[in-house]
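Morning run. Coffee first, then this:
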Amino acid sequence: MTQARPIPDSYWVSPAFLAGEYPGSRHEAEARQKLQALLDAGITFFVDLTEEVERNVSLKPYNQLLDEEAARLGKQVEYRRISIRDIEVPTPETMATILDTIDGALAAGRKVYVHCWGGIGRTGTVVGCYMVRHGLSGEAAIKKIAELREGTPDAWKTAPQTQAQRDMILNWR
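And here it is:
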């Protein structure tokens, strides 16, 4: 049985690992609705791949709303921002840090949500490298991402977005 998507532009990588779009919004009510849906799905660990400049210019920070919604629901949450420049790839060291963070949270029994802005390029790159780390080939990981994203509003877009991002997955060890 497939797990329901808590928000439309998201997909389950594993039963405890969700990936997708930025969970905030310019409209507080919409942001709270997204965050509550993620918390109701059991997400307690958020990995934000956006850059600080994006959050100050285009994206409204959601950290405070997340803390408020979690407190209201009696849940403990953790938020980590490990930035990747939009449309680019991280250094291998940064990717390893991101993957170690995800694996550590999962090993601690947390449900993880990894996101960038649209949930396609940077998020897809991280998900692909995660899959390679856990046994898939790079090609199989890229195919699996497309399968997992079926039914999302942006499923028609290639994920990851750039050849450099796909190459990172294909060459990840």
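Residues 10 and 20 are 4 Å apart (CA to CA). Good start to the day.
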